[in-house]
Amino acid sequence: MGAGHAHTLHHPGDSVVHRLPAHVKIVVAFVLVVAVVATPREAFWVFGAHLVLLVAIWVAARLPVTAIAARSVIEAPFVVLAVLLPFLAAGPRIEVLGLPLSVDGLLAGWNILVKGTLGVLVSITLGMTTPVRDLLAGLTRLRVPGMVTTIATLMVRYLEVIAAEARRMRLARVARGNDPRFLWQIGPTIRGVGTLFLRSYERGERVHLAMLARGYTGAMPLLGDTTAGRRTWTVALVPAVAAVLCATAGYA
Amino acid sequence: MRETQRRGARPSSEPSLEVEGLAFAYPDGHQTLFGVDLRIERGERVALLGPNGAGKTTLVLHLNGVHRAGAGTVRVGGLEVARPHLQEIRRRVGVVFQDPDDQLFMPTVGDDVAFGPANFGVVEPDLSLRVKTALDAVGMGEHADRSPMHLSGGQRRRVALATVLACDPEILVLDEPSSNLDPVARRELAEVLLGLDRTMLMVTHDLPYALQLCPRAVVIDDGVVVADAPTRELLADAAFLAGHRLELPFGFRV
Predict the structure, then answer these.
(1) pLDDT tens profile B233-251
(2) Does B86 contact chain A (CB < 8 Å)?
(3) Nearest-CA neighbor of A43 among A97, A114, A143?
(4) Domains of chain B, earliest start first
(5) For a pLDDT cut of 90, what percent of chain B falls above it?
(6) Which of A217, A223, A227 to probe by mutation at the B interface, max B CB count within 10 Å?
(7) pTM over 0.80
(8) Disulfide check for A250: which of A35, A43, A60, B77 has CB 3.0–4.6 Å away?
(9) Using one digit for the tens of pLDDT, what is the confidence trace for A169-188?
(10) B40: which strand partners?
(11) What whole-number distance in Å separates Cα of residue B210 and Cα of residue B178?
(12) Alpha helices in chain A (DSSP H)
């Protein structure tokens, strides 16, 4: 629950990619992910082509590779699963460096690893080039139901407030002699979650009052919104179309 | 700057706030207001004092139509608080809530200040101008793109004030504006408030702050107005204060 997760993902800049309207980028990112997922797992070269496309976008967006790598650590748990699969899966085996590995497991692990990594990289690229508020405005423009974007907007803001509250409650427990070691803390922590829920619920009511007081009628005003012309769409969709073509070629 | 902010104010002689015989009971039958009368002229700054549970917050929630009067009327700038023009009432009554974390719910300061006016139908380019004017008025013009999470308590309080100023309200209602502020932030907020030249109703337990900011004070206890007098006069009456669970801080003398 580090401070400012929502804000550290974004990598401010003024590149072509940064300046694209958020809803355009969301559509492109979505198509890219679908193309990656739809690529057959045996078409190894196609994944290379997807990666080349991504690198081209990074160059255009002037994103440093180190920053991208730091943000991809989030994928680590899935990598562990992918590495375990060749050992655990059944079926015909193959010798690799003296280890008997399952062929099916190897392919399944590769499938998870490569698609997961590319998917994460696409999402990170979107997050790094688009501030959260623009993402939300983009989702609204793409007709995502208002209630969903409103909840997301409030979550962006209150995740940190609630995390801070949880930290204060933990501190208050520790200050009164509750053993800070993990196992010993489980009981009070679980009770704390209940309290935290009640407090958050009450805060929700107060926030709603404050929203009503400033004229909220059930729809968030559309802020930070930009429109996209045909030219913008055409340019932005080039990588998306390219990825789809590559994926299709993988079936040939 | 003030020109643009006061644009919505009408040059009539209607009082900013007129409460007559207001009574209210919660749905569970617990009655908190028993006939409150209060009249605030345009440009006045009034402190609303009273012990906990006296009905101060309940009164405030009547001013912008969150609660509906059981009996009596509330008028803001001549317009009665009633369902058909609730939206206009909420524009006219700017409530600054006690905890800025409740009031600042958008990802950035600028978005939060824009939230109110956008709801009231202000569109670009006026909207950006409103946001800038309101943030400048509270000395936070530089921070429009920051997250409220990264501001100090005093800065958050001033941004909360800006979110309401951007709606160009007829009357500002401040709920415990000085709570949780360090002395410097408290003074800075006072300077901002004194420089605004707006009708103000300030709910507070901070009696010296009331004295500093509001020439007139109204005391509510047990759901009725028990005093309405110049603040200094009221705070000098130790026996009266004691009778209503009010008390000046140690060492403070009027």
Answers:
(1) 999 999 999 999 998 998 8
(2) no
(3) A114
(4) 2-243 (3.40.50.300)
(5) 61
(6) A223
(7) no
(8) A43
(9) 888 877 777 766 666 667 77
(10) B17
(11) 10
(12) 5-8, 16-19, 22-38, 44-61, 65-71, 76-88, 103-129, 132-141, 146-175, 182-213, 230-250
